[in-house]
Amino acid sequence: MGTNIGFGIVGAGLVAPFHLNAIRDSRGGAAMGIFDINRERAAQVAERFAIKVFSSLQEMLEDENVHVVCVATPNHLHRDAVIQAARAGKHVLTEKPPAMSLRETDEMIDVCKKANVKFGCFVQCRVRKAIEAMKSALDTGRFGRLLRADAYMKWFRPQEYYTSDGWRGQKKCGSGVTVAQGFHYIDLLQYLVGHASTVDAQMTNIGHPGISLEDEVLAHIQYRCGAQGVVQLSTALWPGTDVRIEINGTSGTAVMIGEKIQTWKFREERPGDEQIRTFGSSAQATGAGGAADFGHRDHTVVVQDMIDCIQSDREVIIPVASVRPTLEIVLAMYHSAKHNGPITLPISDDDSVWD
Ligand SMILES: NC(=O)c1ccc[n+]([C@@H]2O[C@H](COP(=O)([O-])OP(=O)(O)OC[C@H]3O[C@@H](n4cnc5c(N)ncnc54)[C@H](O)[C@@H]3O)[C@@H](O)[C@H]2O)c1
Prior knowledge:
Layout: E1 5-10, H1 16-25, E2 29-35, H2 39-49, E3 52-53, H3 57-62, E4 68-71, H4 78-87, E5 91-95, H5 102-114, E6 119-122, H6 129-139, E7 146-154, H7 159-163, H8 183-193, E8 196-204, E9 216-223, E10 228-234, E11 244-249, E12 252-257, E13 260-266, H9 273-276, H10 297-312, H11 324-339, E14 343-344
Helix pairs in contact: 1-10, 4-5, 6-8, 8-11
Bound molecules: nicotinamide-adenine-dinucleotide (NAD).
Nicotinamide-adenine-dinucleotide binds near residues 11, 36, 38, 74 and 180.
């Protein structure tokens, strides 16, 4: 292996340029090429980033200069690309959600483990400085007894977003707001306060007529740690406002809006708190009003981590195994909405939730 870690991208759609910009900005990473079943799309992205178009995934996997495969295909197709890449001995970074079922997620984790390759996930909001500060405060008990953990994502996507590509309007492809956009924020709650014990969710479509998936979910989560919270997710609320994550305990409250710390208050002030209150920028868009309306800085941290992990042979910062509980909570929300009542975790897969 030379000094550079070579990346291949599968899927040349909306998110591919975020991966490629992240690789370009990394230390020690180089994009080797891209593959898409739509060759024209691949060619356009390849031209923009001056990289090669692979004629098949197989060709990409046979290229010894490709060490990492970034999977940026629609949600229901991640599994096949991940498994092929891992079996070819490539490290893998998959987009979120890792897959559409726990079964597929476990299979991918297992194949990557047996192939001895690293397997990370782009739930990149975890690396925001505001979230890192919240996580550290939680891990050191600064909130006291944890009481509430809430996420409010009041976003907007126009009708054309859902009709722009076949998979975007189909529930079974993972295009509902809960498993698509909302996945990031359910993941933040799970990452911060831990796994859920019960989930109660209602799903509706309030703003995208003729599209048969939910564009809104209102949910209540009871966490194993004793805290509870609400999750409100929507892509129907024009013009879309920045996501709010709120954590409350008996000794502290922290609120992040977008990527910015809005409230950082603890009974015991510590050195560094004043600086934490400046974390994040209100100038950086975080996706509220448009699908490509966000920066690639968080993706860059995940890409850089993969490069560093390969070079020093350690575990990635966001292993897919750590995202599995998020998928379980998301799936429990679909179960709950379907059966009209609370769901106790753990759950098993029930593919009929996608009908
Ligand atoms: N992390 C984030 O913030 C973020 C943001 C946007 C999208 N995403 C995720 O990225 C993934 C892609 O989303 P998108 O918005 O770019 O979708 P998209 O539809 O714009 O692009 C997907 C591309 O994959 C191609 N494709 C389909 N099947 C393929 C196959 N078998 N092999 C190779 N290429 C194939 C399509 O032709 C298309 O060009 C999804 O999982 C989505 O959830 C993540």
